[in-house]
Every structure is written in structure tokens, then in C-alpha cells.
Write a structure and sequence with these properties.
By secondary structure, the protein is of the alpha+beta class. 40% of the residues lie in helices and 27% in strands. It is built from nine helices and 13 strands. The strands form two sheets. Strands 1, 2, 3, 4, 5, 6, 7, 8 and 13 form a nine-stranded mixed β-sheet that branches. Strands 10-11-9-12 form a four-stranded antiparallel β-sheet. The two termini are 16 Å apart. The structure holds (3R)-3-hydroxy-3-methyl-5-(phosphonooxy)pentanoic acid (PMV).
Length: 313
């Protein structure tokens, strides 16, 4: 019986397509080099970083255990590069890393698709609503193309109620991104609801959602060709469309404007309203500095990194 195991899982950014993906349009997400590492050791009590495990406070890990662990108590330790509540997928990373570690402790080689499916269920239960973008990206790594239609590179299809998502692998060339975290935490649910109200009553909003969908399809081709300049232009256009939908905010616009003179493109990433923005650039230090000067927290990251993996402990 294994006494301990460790795994790490990455966070994610949404390159193109957030919000439109809720209406069946495609989205592209990328795994980024900010990782969460988790070690599990057999112990006398269930604990996390020295504190007793509480289902109310540690809802993701508790839910993972409830659904996937029949053994005795475990002591967990985590270290993370990912700020929580920033829209970069830290809850997905903890869920994915925990599932991967438990599979190791059970003596089973962790299976990517199984981890991604289970992580989605855990996140949905802990969070009320979720799309599989965060959990699938953290599991598979690299880049994902998520669509309501099946295509080349299909990894798995995830269903919940009437909704389903076809998750595809997406080629990602080596690129530098700078993430600018506003420090404002904005829950996803109300922003999705706001866009839905606009979409239901306005043909203009529906046209914007369609245009975001078209941009994402074009972006996928540019990614394959490694055309950063054109991709950057699409990102900036996408940001403007998201702003028209009402999901940007003053601080996000400020960080995007600060990054743009030194970037191929920049946009909010994820739900918006706060959270984070991303800039595609080959001057990451300069962009990071500009972001910090406007009060943002900056992270220079590599995109397209490996998904969940075993670590030494
Ligand atoms: O909050 P995030 O970063 O996980 O992004 C949400 C993405 C949305 O498209 C706004 C919502 C969704 O469920 O796809």
C-alpha cells in the first residue's frame, strides 16, 4: 500500500471565446505555467496544510474525497503559484491534482479522461454551475478547443443536463503571455446571467456573440500557424466585443490599455467584471511592469504547458 503520492496541475487562461461558449460557440483555453502541487500522506486525521479538513471551507477537496476515497485519513499539503479567485482555475487545479494523487494512492495509473470527467462533476457540485473548461484544461494541459460540434482532435465529450461540450486538443506554439490580475474577485454566475439577459432581448448582442464565435474559429487557425501578430489583433477585437457585452470593467480596460503598446494584443480572460486580463507579447518584462504600475498583479507565463502529472514528494 502506497503511503504517499504527489501531483501537480496547471491553471488556465481563456484565449478566445468566453461567454460566447455559453451559447454554443467555440472557445480556446490554454494551460499556463502556474501550477498547484499537492501531496497526500496517510495519517491519523484528515487535514489540509495542518488544519482539520472542513467540507464548508475546503469544498472541492472534501467533495473529491467523499466521491473517490474509501481508505483511512489523509494529510494533504498544497503549494500553489495560482492566486485563488482570479479566474485562472485554481479550484480546478486542486480538484484535478487531488484526483490524480488519489488514483496513485489506490495503485491505479491515473487516466486522463477519467480525471477530467470526475473533476468536472466535483466542480459542478461544489460550485453549482460550471463548464468543463477549467477542469479539462488542467487535466490535459496544452491547449483546448471546446465546441458544440465534434471535429479533429476530439478528446472527450462532457454532458450535463441539456448542455454538452466536445473537448478537442489544440496545437499551441510556444508563446509568452503576461497575466494581469486586477485583484478584484468577480463571481462568474452573475456575469453569465447578465450576458444572457442582453442576448435574449437584443439582436445586436446576438450578433456580437456570433462575431466572437467567428473570431475564435479564425484564432484556432492562427494558433496552428503560429501567427502571433494576427492572433494578438483578434484578442484585442475580442476584448472590445466583450466590453460591449458589458463584462469588462474600468480596471480591466486600464490594464489592457497599458499592455497594448508593447503587445500583439490583449484582452480580459474568463468571466470578466474583475479577475484577470492577458497580453500576448514578446516584451513580457515591459508589459508586466506597465501592469504593476497601474495597480495590477502581473505574472509572466508560458502557455501550452503539460497537464496534471505525477511529482516527487
Ligand atoms: O470564470 P472563468 O475564468 O472560469 O471563465 C468563465 C467562462 C465563461 O464563458 C464566462 C463561463 C463558462 O461557463 O464558460
Amino acid at each position: 500500500m502506497m503511503q504517499a503520492a504527489a501531483s501537480s496541475a496547471p491553471g488556465k487562461i481563456i484565449l478566445l471565446g468566453e461567454h460566447a461558449v455559453v451559447f454554443g460557440r467555440p472557445a480556446i483555453s490554454l494551460a499556463v505555467g502556474l501550477r498547484l502541487r499537492l501531496t497526500a500522506r496517510r495519517s491519523n486525521v484528515f487535514e489540509l496544510n495542518g488544519s482539520p479538513l472542513s467540507p464548508r471551507i475546503h469544498s472541492y477537496l472534501s467533495n473529491v474525497l467523499e466521491r473517490n476515497w474509501k481508505g483511512g485519513p489523509l494529510s494533504f499539503e498544497t503549494t500553489s503559484d495560482l492566486p485563488s479567485g482570479s479566474g485562472l482555475g485554481s479550484s480546478a487545479a486542486v480538484t484535478v491534482a487531488a484526483l490524480h494523487t488519489l488514483a496513485q494512492l489506490h495503485g491505479n495509473p491515473p487516466q486522463e479522461e477519467k480525471v477530467a470527467r470526475e473533476a468536472f462533476i466535483v466542480e459542478s457540485e461544489a460550485q453549482g454551475r460550471a463548464s468543463p473548461i477549467d477542469t479539462s484544461t488542467s487535466t490535459h494541459g496544452r491547449g483546448l478547443f471546446i465546441d458544440s460540434r465534434q471535429g479533429d482532435g476530439l478528446l472527450w465529450t462532457i454532458r450535463r443536463d441539456e448542455r454538452f461540450w466536445h473537448v478537442h486538443d489544440c496545437t499551441v506554439p510556444r508563446m509568452n503571455f503576461v497575466i494581469g490580475h486586477t485583484g478584484i474577485s468577480a463571481p462568474t454566475g452573475p456575469l453569465v446571467a447578465k450576458v444572457k439577459r442582453y442576448y435574449d432581448k437584443s439582436g445586436f448582442a446576438r450578433e456580437i456573440i456570433d462575431e466572437i464565435g467567428d473570431i475564435t474559429l479564425e484564432g484556432r487557425k492562427l494558433l496552428q500557424n503560429g501567427d502571433q501578430e494576427a492572433l494578438g489583433r483578434l484578442m484585442t477585437r475580442d476584448h472590445r466585443l466583450l466590453a460591449i457585452l458589458g463584462v469588462s470593467c474600468v480596471q480591466l480596460d486600464k490594464l489592457v490599455a497599458a499592455a497594448l503598446p508593447h503587445s500583439y494584443g490583449a484582452k480580459l480572460t474568463g468571466a470578466g467584471g474583475g479577475g484577470s486580463m492577458i497580453a500576448l507579447t514578446d516584451r513580457p518584462q515591459k508589459v508586466a511592469q506597465e501592469i504593476r504600475q497601474r495597480g495590477g498583479i502581473s505574472y509572466i507565463v508560458e502557455a501550452g504547458v503539460p497537464g496534471v502529472r505525477k511529482e516527487e514528494f
